[in-house]
Amino acid sequence: MSSLEFPQPDQNLTLDAFLSPYFAQYHRERCYPGLLFRQGKRQMIQINVPAHDLPTLLQAKPSTGNDPDSGKNRPEVKGHAEEIKGYIRERVGKNKPWILGTLTANIHPDDINIIELGRDICLVIIPRKVKLDITDGQHRKRAIHELIVGSESELISDNNFPITLVLEDDFNQCQTDFRDMAQTRQLDQTLLKSFGEFEGQVGITKVLQTEVPMFRGKTEKIKSAPATKQKLIYTTNYIAKFVSCAFANDPNDELKNIEVEPAARALIKALNQFFSESIHTRHIFEKDAQELTVVEVSDFKENCLLGRSVGLEILGRLLYFAYDRTMSCFLPEKVRQISNLDWSKSSHVWEGTVVLSSYNPPNVAKSYKITASANAVRLAVSSAKSHLGWN
Hints:
Layout: H1 15-25, E1 30-39, E2 42-50, H2 54-57, E3 58-59, H3 80-93, E4 103-107, E5 113-118, E6 121-126, E7 132-136, H4 138-149, E8 160-167, H5 171-181, H6 189-194, H7 200-211, E9 219-220, E10 234-235, H8 236-248, H9 260-277, H10 282-285, H11 294-303, H12 309-320, E11 323-324, E12 329-330, H13 332-339, E13 355-357, E14 368-370, H14 374-388
Parallel strand pairs: 3-7, 4-8, 9-10
Antiparallel strand pairs: 1-2, 1-6, 2-8, 4-7, 5-6, 11-12, 13-14
Region (Disordered): 57-80
Organism: Desertifilum tharense IPPAS B-1220
Pfam families: DndB
């Protein structure tokens, strides 16, 4: 740390004017205003760095081969930097906000100069010969680097990136820091869908959750599985996969090119018709979530295929064949036919496809098991179409 004799700030002096002598003094070095703080028994500094500075300021030291000690963080994951660049291209191309998050790097405290200005505000002087070692963010750094030095620099050239700088030179501690930051719990798909952008698959799903009585108040929007005791039947992810099947016959299609409002309205109309006409769902559809009992929800999920994710997927794939692309609607007559199918798990329509009989089951009441494999779903849809006379 150092303290030089420069003018002290007063109410008539702007921050630029106050800092100007420092930048003049160190114009040959890289200077960044920073915020000092302590965390986990270490001194840290938060700085914001222009995109053009990152390629020469940061360096990654990933492990190589089968030797974790050959670097400070994990080996690079092939293709991950490309995914990050693709994300930026897509968001910028649509003129939408984007975010990469804070990078973390470490440096020996003797390799930089920190001028404390008071109130934990400081100026960080980093000599040109010094590089910061990345602890977390090597793929983001690589993506930024390749965009800046390539032909697409205009995508991010006017952006800054925050760096948390840890004043640490112990190699083993740097590896430990990477491990600690990498132990974030993987987010459930339901939560990711619930917080997804209001477009395509996610946008339609969010509309259905509020406009379709079968889903309203009966959908788990955070966790990966719906809790029967909370009278929840579906998850946001179940419905999202159903939506993609209804419009693309593919549960993973994000439907980026489909307009939310007209698509949602067409699907709402079809679903409300289907759930109100099917004898297997009408009693659940007509009751508000508060009116349902735990026993009713449990019985529905246990006995009706439509109380499972795989049942919704099959319904979506059948509705795909009921969609009139010229009129942008699901044909009511075909929706009626689908509603007349026997959707109980004991139905011969599903036997040997997604419902498999178990011989000598430990629980006689559950003499079957449900499978959601791609091949089983394909066979189930084919069986249903055969019963409908659509083949």
